[in-house]
Write a structure and sequence with these properties.
single chain, alpha/beta, Nucleotidyltransferase, domain 5, 2 domains, 7-stranded mixed beta sheet, 5-stranded mixed beta sheet, 13 helices, 12 strands, about 15% strand, globular, binds 5'-O-[(R)-(carboxyoxy)(hydroxy)phosphoryl]adenosine, binds zinc ion
Length: about 450
């Protein structure tokens, strides 16, 4: 990345994430030349409790919540970042229309207000909140806006993208769309570094005040690398031959791993999101599943490991979910107490998913002579997956390194989007607000 003016060394990135059911904003301060940065603010507002009532994410509810919360969250993030905005400047809450020529400092020229209205016209609540919280604050010390462009739920993505467009246009700063999955890859590379490692931030009175901000760096890794990305919408193996060069070499043909966890949870009467619940149940498992009529094994039931022996690196989890459904039905017919057997069912299901994910990752890593393996996405929070993958890598690929995200960064967040932006800063454009659109099916 290059600074716009020769004497400016620091880049402040504001990242926005609204691809699913978390509204998230992060502001980081990076050096233009390095991969080390400070996190000035990192806020995630989860909608999980609201969607849980419906058994899964409802796209229009997600959209509404993002609209309601984004402007305030950005304001809070700016405040946390200690950018200098006085309190009195927050209070102006009405759109004010001015002729361009009569616009005074702090007032928005009429032309900009009209553009803003057209950007936000399909997001009425966002427009109201923008007006209330952001319209009249002076431009904070943000140099670049990054926003998740996809993949994700289209109505949810639009909110983040339109919000980012509005900010970029209003404050006249560059904008860039970021791939959510690249964010999950970056999350595995984030390392908190307590010491001033790669560079020294200029010491000033202001910096002293904010010296307790967490400092992170993006780990330097050896290539080729392989990322196993497992989330609610995706399950894919991504080959990374060199920095920023991504190629999907395998992916799910139907349900994603997280989706399978969520569906199995529903079959077993557990609430959304199912992943954490199923894995918590699995951890309590002491009993083995009794044999079900028609099952293949002799003394206990086992679920299939779909596509584990297929020559490609694709996955399929839909049949596994159906197998759980049939198994529960059979057990019920035999008069079994499903609630009692739930931990054992969860354990066997989790084992089946983990076996397939680990086995295919190891095979791909061997074939492509992988030196670094990364794990990312919501399902990366699964302890059994983490442990089994780590053990398999140690055994089968002792010369490869394995990295996964910190537990607070496995789920969707904006810090990973900010971190992914570091490699793409040059592509951000001041005019991008004119054309940027979400891409619900965005691929590498
Ligand atoms: O990456 P993420 O937060 O959102 C998407 O981009 O989809 O992933 C959410 C998914 C959900 O399906 C959730 O059930 C799953 O991650 N998940 C887990 C665990 N924690 C979250 N799956 C298995 N075990 C977990 N501990
Ligand atoms: Zn995600």
């Amino acid at each position: 990345m290059e600074p716009p003016s020769t004497n400016k060394k620091l880049l402040h990135i504001a990242a926005i994430e609204t691809s699913c059911d978390e509204t998230a904003i992060a502001i980081i301060e990076a050096l233009y030349s390095g991969h080390s940065f400070r996190v000035l603010s990192n806020i995630v507002l989860s909608q999980v409790a609201m969607h849980a009532q419906w058994g899964g994410v409802v796209p229009n509810l997600a959209k509404r919540e993002h609209e309601k919360n984004l402007p305030f969250l950005l304001l809070k993030s700016v405040q946390e970042s200690n950018f200098s905005i006085s309190k009195s400047q927050f209070s102006i809450s009405k759109f004010r229309f001015h002729r361009e020529s009569s616009a005074k400092p702090g007032q928005i020229p009429n032309s900009k207000t009209q553009i803003l209205n057209s950007i936000l016209e399909k997001n009425e609540e966002l427009q109201n909140q923008f007006e209330k919280h952001l319209l009249h604050i002076p431009r904070p010390n943000i140099d670049l806006i990054a926003v998740t462009q996809g993949p994700g739920l289209e109505p949810a993505l639009w909110v983040g993208v339109n919000f980012a467009r509005a900010l970029s246009m209003l404050w006249d700063i560059p904008l860039i769309g970021i791939n959510h999955m690249e964010g999950h890859i970056a999350s595995a590379l984030l390392k908190q570094s307590g010491k001033i490692s790669n560079f020294q931030f200029p010491i000033s009175k202001k910096n002293k005040k904010i010296s307790n901000y967490k400092r992170y760096m993006l780990k330097a890794i050896r290539y080729p690398a392989l990322a196993l990305l497992v989330s609610g919408g995706h399950t894919e193996l991504v080959l990374i031959k060199k920095p920023l060069q991504y190629k999907i070499i395998g992916e799910t043909r139907d349900d994603a791993a997280g989706e399978a966890f969520d569906k199995v949870a529903r079959i077993l009467g557990l609430s959304y999101p199912g992943g954490p619940q199923v894995s918590a149940e699995a951890q309590q498992s002491e009993v083995r599943l009794p044999k079900v009529v028609g099952s293949r094994t002799s003394d206990c039931f086992s679920l299939p490991r779909p596509m584990i022996h297929s020559k490609d690196f694709d996955f399929s989890f839909s049949g596994l979910k159906t197998a759980v459904l049939y198994m529960v039905r059979d057990l019920e017919k035999q008069g079994a107490n499903i609630k009692k057997l739930r931990p054992a069912i969860c354990k066997e299901f989790e084992n089946a998913v983990v076996d397939v994910l680990v086995s295919k990752t190891i095979r791909a890593a061997k074939q492509y002579k992988i030196k670094t393996i990364l794990l990312g996405g919501g399902v990366a929070a699964n302890v059994s997956l983490q442990k089994n993958l780590a053990v398999a890598i140690k055994k089968d690929l002792p010369n490869s390194k394995f990295y996964m995200p910190n537990s607070n960064l496995t789920g969707d967040n904006a810090l990973m989007i900010a971190a992914a932006t570091i490699g793409h800063g040059k592509q951000a454009k001041k005019t991008a607000w004119k054309t940027l659109k979400p891409d619900a099916n965005m691929r590498f």
